[in-house]
Every structure is written in C-alpha cells, then in structure tokens.
Amino acid sequence: MTDHYDEEAQVEELRKWLRENWFPLASGLALGLAAIFGWQAWGQRLDAHAGEASHVFEDLNRAAAENKYDDAKAMTDRLVKDFSDTPYAAAASLKLAALAVGSGKFDDAAARLQWVAQYEQSPSVAARIGAMLHLRPRGYDPALLPLARLRLAQVLWQQNKPDEALKQLDGDAGAYAALYDELRGDIKLSQGDRTAARGAYQQALQTLGPDAVNREGLQRKLDDIADAPVVKS
After folding, report:
1. Is 121 within the bounds of a domain?
2. Which of 21, 111, 135, 148 is paired with 179 by a 20 to 30 Å CA distance?
C-alpha cells in the first residue's frame, strides 16, 4: 500500500509541475522549432543567392570569351553590387581587368584590381563574422590579395607609373614571391638601376624551383646585366 501511495504522490507532483511550467516548456519548444525552420530557410536563401551569382558569372565568362567588354563590365558591376559576399565578385573583377588590359583600357583594369585588393584586404565585418560562424559561404579569399597587387603593379607600370607599381610590390607576396621579385627587377632596370635589378632577379631565382618554367627566361635577364655590381642578399 505504501508503494501505491508513493506512486500516486509522484504522479501528482509531476502533474503539478507541468501545470506550473507548461508555458515555458511550450515557448521553448516553439522557439526551437522556429530556429530549426529559420536556419533551413536561411540556408536555402544562401544557396539561391550563390546560385544566381554563379549564373551571372557564367554569362560573364561567355561575354569575355566573345570579347564583349561592355556586357562583361555590366555583369561585373552587378556581381560587385549585389553579390560581393560571394567569391564571384572578386573573380569577375579579375577577369574583367584582364579583358581591359587586352583592350588597352588600363585605367579600367587598375580600378578593378584596386577594388579586389581593397576588398580582400579589408572585407566587411559582416562578411568576416558570417564566414567565421559559417552563416554564409566565404566571399573573400586573402590569397587573392597578392595576385591582385601583382597584376595592379603590372598595369601601373604599363601606365608609366613605376613608383606606384613598386609600392604594390611591398609586403607579403604569398605564392607569387618570385614573380614579385622579377617584376621589381624589370621596373628597376627600366629606371636604369641595374644593381637593384640584378639583386631582384637573383632573389627571384633563389625563390624559384629548379623546374620552374620561367627560370630560363629569368636567367637570361640576369645574364644580360652581368656587368652590374654583385648584390649581396
């Protein structure tokens, strides 16, 4: 009999607890379900957003292949404006810059490359937090910064702005260290500084692997200024 009364007391305590706490329980359940469905909806929105950007980028590739600069520019502008939180904006800007160089539009190319360099160096706070928390696909890639700066230096040199070009070659070169040094050597040589050019070429050769495809050409550049004073690294 004692066990029976104990069970009834426990059931009554449970009923009392449920009567007193049903609202917090129901609210918590509702919030949990809302969070789950909201997260799913957010993920679907991100997928659709990235998918749309991908389609625009594909159209840009076709326009670039057909050398339709104005069409490619319009698509790049759209990606930068509406999809800068995806990797397609920077990729489009790099592609348009290359197309602009091929068309002799060096000012346009420089502007695009400057945008990429600035964005990759200082992405928005929202983009950083979103990527860190995996709330959105990572729309920026720090590895693109040295590439953008290298290409920008090349364009600035073409524009007869060697000092500005050299400034772009300061700092971390990432995977492009040998190309940075080679271009620095080219610019210094064009300025008549054969000693600095030789030092830059030597540094580039030291960085390059023995089987690098551009090693032979770089060695020829160094041989051409063999009379320049030896530079100690």
Report:
1. yes
2. 111
Q: How many domains does the chain have?
A: 2
Q: Is residue 3 part of a domain?
A: no
- List the beta strands (DSSP E) in the chain: none
Residues 192, 152 share a domain: no
23, two tokens:
């609202």
pLDDT per residue over 50-103, tens digit each?
789 999 999 999 999 999 999 999 999 999 999 888 889 999 999 999 999 999
Give Cβ neighbours of residue 139 (< 8 Å, ≥ 6 apart).
84, 85, 86, 87, 89, 123, 127, 131
Contact 72, 95 (CB under 8 A): yes
Contact 151, 113 (CB under 8 A): yes
The answer as to whether 17 is a domain residue is no
What is the C-alpha separation between 137 and 142, in angstroms, rounded? Answer: 14
- DSSP type of residue 176: G
Cβ atoms of residues 165 and 153 within 8 Å: yes
- At residue 11, what is the residue type? V
Tell me: do 113 and 82 sit in the same domain.
yes
The overall pTM is greater than 0.70: yes
| Same-domain pairing of 38 and 145 | yes
> Cβ neighbours of residue 93 under 8 Å, at least 6 residues apart?
76, 79, 80, 112, 113, 115, 116
